Fold:
Amino acid sequence: MSQLRCDPITGRWIIADITSPKRPGEFELMPQKKKGGACPFCAGSEKMTPPEISAIRKPGTKPDTPGWSVRTVPNKFPALDTQGSVENRAIGIYDMSSGIGAHEVIIETPAHDKDLADLTPKEIENVISEYRARSLVLEKDDRFRYLLIFKNHGAAAGASLEHSHTQIVALPIVPKRVKEELKGAVTYFGYRERCVFCDMVAQELQDKLRVIFENRHFVAFCPFVPRFAFETWIVPKKHNQDFKSIDDKTVKSMAAILKDTLARIKKVLKDPAYNFIIHTAPIRDGINEEFHWHLEIMPKLTSVAGFEWGSGFYINPTSPEFAAKCLRQGKGE
Amino acid sequence: MSQLRCDPITGRWIIADITSPKRPGEFELMPQKKKGGACPFCAGSEKMTPPEISAIRKPGTKPDTPGWSVRTVPNKFPALDTQGSVENRAIGIYDMSSGIGAHEVIIETPAHDKDLADLTPKEIENVISEYRARSLVLEKDDRFRYLLIFKNHGAAAGASLEHSHTQIVALPIVPKRVKEELKGAVTYFGYRERCVFCDMVAQELQDKLRVIFENRHFVAFCPFVPRFAFETWIVPKKHNQDFKSIDDKTVKSMAAILKDTLARIKKVLKDPAYNFIIHTAPIRDGINEEFHWHLEIMPKLTSVAGFEWGSGFYINPTSPEFAAKCLRQGKGE
Structure:
């Protein structure tokens, strides 16, 4: 069973396993590719996962059998429990909450040897449609306040299974990073009466120094203040705070730019580990019209060390101008 | 040359290398122990480092020769330049500053095969005295506003050289994490008229559930809201915002508890990679009497993945109550 705990100094939350803690000796920092044994995410291994929640599959095929192209299942080792109500309490100066939430896995392809960058634009479109579909269902649960969609690719980025997948976590509170971004966007809007992300897109498209690629709906660029070498953002050109409200044309356009960007990163950096995260507005927290949803890709090329942990400052050995140049020149395909 | 850049959304700062960016193919995520070749931090290799800034050494021995027990040198690959003045400017919506600061390395022992946990209490006392001595010198430079003292132990924690050392970085701005902690402490003080860290120490000593060890001046405990499994804090019992103002008795007491704690971590977790960071008040930023300096140790047993990067939420597979129990039982020596 897990418990949510809030730090009384910084307001940071954690999820701690209080009933079956991991013991010394059970940690494996860089879990390796599973030797032997079937992969639970492959076509034909459907019985190895918890029963599927939803899937995009061929007409006439049954749940938990082959025939799917994208498949969503509950995480077998969820960080949060779906059952129960959100209960807040305190012990002395410490606040905590029951570890309620949803933790789902979106398997992006039945093929074990393909990652997201290898899929066709149409297949990636299906993956993004599934992100949107699950978001639209999960937002109806009034215990949840935030939906976090993220992908870990490669052991160094925290992926414990190699088969390409994305995770979606529904949280009963709005996380700190999201609050910070919202607050920043609101503050900027307050004194300029413009969206900071819209201004950023305009400046990047004018400067061109950090732009990698653009299409009708999106621009991919290395942000001016990247925490990580070759960090890349994909930002919609049209202001919209809410990822799950995008229409089919936008999904198609997003699939195209995501494929292009991931293929460039894969080629130029030789298939690095990376995380990507969809930053979107909270689901039950007012209007948030100052926010602007986007996707951030963070290749894991360097270690995060004491300096970063102590300061929240990041040392980046590669300027975003140089990173963008490399990624512009190195087309994926 | 490096440049400081500030994120217009969150206020996060980074240091980017803008003149000699690291290229694709030059990254090595987990640098391995150097095969062959002399270690620049060993006794006898003094000429391999930039000239020493200060050292604790036998009377009669000369700088940059053997005879030292603790030795401070400039970082050969500094994140910031010591020369120049702090200049702030903007390009469009982006703010930046010249990359001015100091970046020093405190070599903790002349012996290559010893780490901090292996040193005698007296040797650790010398190391802590050197942290204090360098802080007292660096604070006089009025370009600097924060001194960050941190240690990376092991490749997974970002250490690029194996020989035991600590780093000290003098920054021209107060970093985000420090501001957050200060703000939290001020807010707490504002409505309770007490220090949040003093309250935490009192509650931990009363509960005893998360305490590992205490001595006259300090208590070591696993915090109620740990980001990482087996995260451990060493907090002085007496309220004081400023690490560098501690007296010799406190240095001695700190050496004793630091040795005890690191030895327990080394034994119980089988010499894991870890970072530690001294959290102290800014040097040129008002009084900050609500703050309470302390040291945070973060073993690196798990990867930080997309969930953490996206939310600022941490999933900790081990409760601090269980971690403290393991560390209490497993004495280092």
